[in-house]
Design a protein that fits this description.
Elements lengths: L1 H8 L6 H31 L22 H12 L4
Length: 84
Amino acid sequence: MFVHGSQTVLGRPVPVGVSLSADLGHILLTAGLVLLFVLLGRRLKERAPARAPNGIRPFRAGAQTGISSGQEEKAEQRRSGQPG
């Protein structure tokens, strides 16, 4: 594809073999991207978190925010107004 593009930009004639190999490269790239997104979609469906009956995921403090359990307890004490 690089050779084909360079030759085209420079205005030189491009042999048929170079054009065919560039076309094959584009086809392989497209097939690879389709496969990537298919596999990614399967993986996301496989690891989907459980949902509550109302369709809302339960929130677990620290699970998605990276807060450690000690920080989580301090944050809970601040929210409830208890001295820490």
